[in-house]
Amino acid sequence: MEDDKIPARRKILAAAGTLFTTTGYASTTIKAIAGEAGVAVQTVYFVFGNKRSVLAALLDTSIAGDDEPIPTLARPWVAEAIAEPDPLSQLRIQVHGARLVLDRAAPVLLAVRAAAGADAEVAQLWATTCEHTETVLRHLTIVLADKLDHVDVDRTVDVGLALLAPETHTLLIDERGWSPEDYERWVVDALAAAAGLEV
């Protein structure tokens, strides 16, 4: 039975991703998701239960890049950044990893944020996502501070949250035409400056 659910799950998430990021979460119905995915409405309910669960699963897989239940702090790119002894190299690794997450997830993150104002459950999902993002960034910044002197952890985290926000990523890459690589280099330079690290 589980094997039968995997293809349907992927189809539903792909369909939901298209609809949530174009027509919006509130305007998207389970029926519309089912139609876009080419599955029965009952299949969507069977696999996910409700629309909010579809959104939560889409957000999880967009951020992770897969269906594996591995927390961000246990992901290989985070471990590589933490293990890197050189502070600037750590920044480059962690920003690259974060940029790849945003390349996948920025449209979904913006859809969640847009829906949060009108739906209490989605607002909680957005709040949890923001807390998770800050936790990961703070952990990496504390690791960076251990390799440097006089790092203002709180300020560096605040700068990182602004630079790596889905709004910033979307503005510079999608609207202003920056390449992902240019955006990534800019984030590294700005975070290095915030940490007092010479590039």
UniProtKB/TrEMBL annotation:
Q: Would the keyword Transcription regulation be found if you checked this record's keyword annotation?
A: yes
HTH tetR-type domain location: 6-66
What Pfam families does the database record attribute to this sequence? TetR_N
Among InterPro entries, the record links this protein to:
Homeodomain-like_sf, HTH-type_TetR-like_transc_reg, HTH_TetR
Write the record's keywords in alphabetical order, separated by commas.
DNA-binding, Transcription, Transcription regulation
Say if the entry is tagged with keyword Protein biosynthesis.
no
PROSITE patterns per UniProt: HTH_TETR_2
Any idea which GO molecular function terms this record carries? DNA-binding transcription factor activity; transcription cis-regulatory region binding
> Could you tell me the superkingdom of the organism this chain comes from?
Bacteria
According to the entry, DNA is bound by residues in 29-48
PANTHER family, sorted: HTH-TYPE TRANSCRIPTIONAL REGULATOR BETI (PTHR30055:SF234), HTH-TYPE TRANSCRIPTIONAL REGULATOR RUTR (PTHR30055)
This chain's protein is named TetR/AcrR family transcriptional regulator
Question: Which species does the entry assign this protein to?
Answer: Rhodococcus xishaensis
Q: What taxonomic ancestry is recorded?
A: Bacteria, Bacillati, Actinomycetota, Actinomycetes, Mycobacteriales
